[in-house]
Amino acid sequence: MDLNALAGCVSSSGCLVTQTSSGLIVGLLLFLVAAGLTLIFGVLKVVNFAHGTFYMLGAYFALSTYQFTGSYLAAVAAGCVGMGLFGIAFERFLISRAYGTNVLMQLLICYAVVLIFDDVVKMVWGADFQSMGMPPAFQVPPYFIAGGIVPPFYLVLIGVALAVALVLGVALAATRAGKIVRAAAVNPEMVSVLGINTTLLYALVFAVGGGLAGLAGALAAPVRSLTPGMGFSVLIESFIVTVIGGMGSIAGSLIAAILLGMIRSFGTIGFPLFTDELIFGFMIVVLITRPTGLFGREVV
Amino acid sequence: MAESSAPLPPAPSRKGRGSGAASPFLLREGVGGGVEAILALLVLAVLWVIPLAIPNAAFTDLVIRLSAMGLFATSLNLLVGTTGLVSFGHGMFYGFGAYSFALLMQDTSLPLWAAVLVSLAFSALLALLVGAVCIRLRTIYFAFVTLAMQMLLHSIILSWVSLTGGDQGLRGGIPRRFILGVDLSIPRNLYWASLVVLVAGLLLMRHVVASPFGTSLRMVRDNETRAAFLGITIWRAKLTVFVIAGVFAALGGMVMSLFVSGAYPELADWPLSGQAIFAIMLGGIGAFLGPLVGTLILLALNDLVTRATEYYGLALGLIILAFALGFRRGVMESVLVQARRRWPRVAGVRRG
After folding, report:
1. Which of A20, A82, B122, B195 could form an SS bridge with A61, CB 3.0 to 4.6 Å?
2. For B167-189, how does the pLDDT look when each residue is reduced to its tens digit (9 = 90+)?
3. Where would I find the H helices in A1-90?
4. ipTM
5. Which residues of B touch A118 (CB under 8 A)?
């Protein structure tokens, strides 16, 4: 534990900016994954335990596309669209078989998918750490803001994630499609009786969730090293985000994800050895004091 | 939790649970514990003499691992099958049992039996703390928060290097491996000891399932609100069974710790919890011996798969998918259903 270092960082504007920006990208990547998780849970009442796998595959898809085409934009598109399609396939062929059965069956199917694709990644891309490297477009000198160092790519990542949050929030709140999704979350039978194809809706919800996770993976690829099994810690943390933020609340998961990012970023300075424990501890405190999560209405 | 103004909900009608009641050793409900104990002793006696007749290291190793994992899986089924609490982090107690036992043996001068008891007490305390946070959560949250708790323990094990050896695990072996003058560092002795632990553990857990407390657990599983109306304190029942299950999982971990002469982070890692879930589904959550049978099949599968391919996860994952999408009913449940159909008087008829 090094509280002096933490105090020193908080009192220096340069360190504050640097740590805040890295906390923001950690948090916003988590948000993209958690938003999909909470959306799928809200509508289908399924917690997609394989969501971390979507994130991992998104990153690897992006890596290969980038190596093949040299375009980072194409890489992001491949990660996002690829995992959207993967999400549909996963919903149609696997998880839809477990609707209406007990939670065990869903957990088991997801567990199998996690095992399978961790190994598939090992077969296709190898078991070693891989890195994409920063695309040339972003290999420019970092910005200095109030003495802190912020790489340009961070700003892009933050911008994209916030835009996604905004689009998702507005789409759910103010469009016809959003209304249907919210209605299906409350009463799917009634939605189906009103002539809406809920089978299609479920597949699309998984497509959006998968696409978001794939997008997060693709955005993470330049700043993270890629390894089989990289999805699992992201899954756990994004689940913690949804618990803290309140299941089903997009705004809640945004705020919780940023909080978690900050804990991780500043935690590595003050408590380098037990940053993880700090995050779990935070979740436990929230669970005990506010069982609905910070922003949710539904008791977990 | 029940609201006092709510109307009494209808009686449960559940499908897909297999037999609602405890289904013991293929025997009828009414058959007393004595018969089961005698049956268990018979099986114990047969297994006891096998290594004397046919010495085979692979067999004794398998049984020792079966004892560890079987206790672990059966204890998980106390939560999943009996109470309807789907814990995805049960491996934390297995790992904690292994670590706390190995640490007590290495760092204190306690004799083995005392280390086991102290370690069980610690495990019970851990289960009490974790359970206190988790048991009131709804199904899916319960599954994930228990998993998160396990990952917390796992990350503590990895980061507290000075105590646990970090990712290298606890090395240096386990000293003073004597119990009642028997040296457990000899594989055959460990085989016999773990057989005794397994059979005793199973009988004790069977006692829990068959007791009135077990009946109230099944009632909580089938209809929580109704159970609350009938005077069962839901949280107390759930917390109690959570602690009991944690203690037996820790016992399994201790057997494993003796087997591997130490403790490794993998013993507390999440895939173990996933394997246990698969094992109980494979064997059947509706049958008391289901998890044990499932564990046996899983261990055999593990050996086959690791021998055949380096892509263990891929192969196991495909097997799990085939099971989850194809069969759905555990092996022991199928056996029980068949047995009930053919010999209704012996096997007992499903309770309504």
Report:
1. A82
2. 888 887 888 787 887 888 888 88
3. 3-11, 13-44, 51-69, 72-89
4. 0.86
5. 313
